[in-house]
Amino acid sequence: MTQHNVCIIGDGAIGSLFAAFASANDVMVYRGMREHKTGVKSVTLFDGKQTSRYAEDISPIGTPLTYDLVVFPLKVYQLEAALLQWQAVIGDSPILLLQNGMGGEEIARKVLPLQRIYQATTSHGALKTDHESVRHTGMGNTLAGRSLSTPADLATDDKIRTIVETAFPPVTWCEDIYLSLWQKLSVNLAINPLTAIHDIRNGQILAPRYTSVLDALSHEIAEVMQACGLNESAETILARIKTVAQATADNFSSMHQDIAHQRQTEIDAITGYLLSKAASERIAVPTNARLYQQINQLSV
Ligand code: KPL
């Protein structure tokens, strides 16, 4: 069996988890680290197993190499700088954008006009407990697929699918990753701002006082999705939001945590993205616009 080599850029919790899974599954892992920085050294997996040294560090001024896949598990707002910094080292290796929210593909396409771009989003929970340690806090699933702007190439697409499925299981490979990312976005559009604004856990948005706002959000999201050519009803969106809120009832959403720790939020890649699509389609989305404003008021 050929051993695949995967480069994972950055030192975040999800990237470290990906690296730990991949090396445990016999993938050769390189970590793209900034100069003079050492990465996370220990990842405690959900089943309690600990991984120790699992990757070779490379730097953005290192020797260019073709990787089977380069993963960017970064926030959308960190993506452009990282792509510019690493483009010389990764050459024309296919890349996988792994993040919450939307807009990543457009950013990557501007920097790398000819690259093969794949996209993914994950529901694994991971937490950096200190500079060198990460804890896997919740088993999840990863949705992945070829981006809209990348032409189909059966052999390469199959190879990337095999690598992602081997490196970071379980994976659902999506023939229409754009739709899958929008479906995930529809959940984040409701749960993330509402939990952050009202300082509540995910499950608490199911209380009767949030019924009308969830309804309004679902209708606005459905209208914008339909204008983008995606066939989703408000009822389907509302049902999905409720299912995820129930399944993650005890969690604090990522936006709740960002606000609580005074970190930059992903509101621009979530609600900001919807607002920009709504504006170009001339659709009024007052409820989303209000949540966007409220999050920006709470942000540092
Ligand atoms: O993706 C999430 C997030 O917190 O960003 C949800 C699905 C809302 C789970 O917390």
Automatic annotation (TrEMBL):
<dbReference type="InterPro" id="IPR008927">
    <property type="entry name" value="6-PGluconate_DH-like_C_sf"/>
</dbReference>
<keyword id="KW-0560">Oxidoreductase</keyword>
<keyword id="KW-0566">Pantothenate biosynthesis</keyword>
<dbReference type="InterPro" id="IPR013752">
    <property type="entry name" value="KPA_reductase"/>
</dbReference>
<comment type="function">
    <text>Catalyzes the NADPH-dependent reduction of ketopantoate into pantoic acid.</text>
</comment>
<dbReference type="GO" id="GO:0015940">
    <property type="term" value="P:pantothenate biosynthetic process"/>
</dbReference>
<dbReference type="InterPro" id="IPR036291">
    <property type="entry name" value="NAD(P)-bd_dom_sf"/>
</dbReference>
<dbReference type="InterPro" id="IPR050838">
    <property type="entry name" value="Ketopantoate_reductase"/>
</dbReference>
<feature type="domain" description="Ketopantoate reductase C-terminal">
    <location>
        <begin position="176"/>
        <end position="298"/>
    </location>
</feature>
<comment type="pathway">
    <text>Cofactor biosynthesis; (R)-pantothenate biosynthesis; (R)-pantoate from 3-methyl-2-oxobutanoate: step 2/2.</text>
</comment>
<dbReference type="GO" id="GO:0008677">
    <property type="term" value="F:2-dehydropantoate 2-reductase activity"/>
</dbReference>
<comment type="similarity">
    <text>Belongs to the ketopantoate reductase family.</text>
</comment>
<dbReference type="InterPro" id="IPR013328">
    <property type="entry name" value="6PGD_dom2"/>
</dbReference>
<dbReference type="Pfam" id="PF08546">
    <property type="entry name" value="ApbA_C"/>
</dbReference>
<feature type="domain" description="Ketopantoate reductase N-terminal">
    <location>
        <begin position="6"/>
        <end position="145"/>
    </location>
</feature>
<keyword id="KW-0521">NADP</keyword>
<protein>
    <recommendedName>
        <fullName>2-dehydropantoate 2-reductase</fullName>
        <ecNumber>1.1.1.169</ecNumber>
    </recommendedName>
</protein>
<dbReference type="GO" id="GO:0050661">
    <property type="term" value="F:NADP binding"/>
</dbReference>
<dbReference type="InterPro" id="IPR003710">
    <property type="entry name" value="ApbA"/>
</dbReference>
<dbReference type="Pfam" id="PF02558">
    <property type="entry name" value="ApbA"/>
</dbReference>
<dbReference type="GO" id="GO:0005737">
    <property type="term" value="C:cytoplasm"/>
</dbReference>
<dbReference type="InterPro" id="IPR013332">
    <property type="entry name" value="KPR_N"/>
</dbReference>
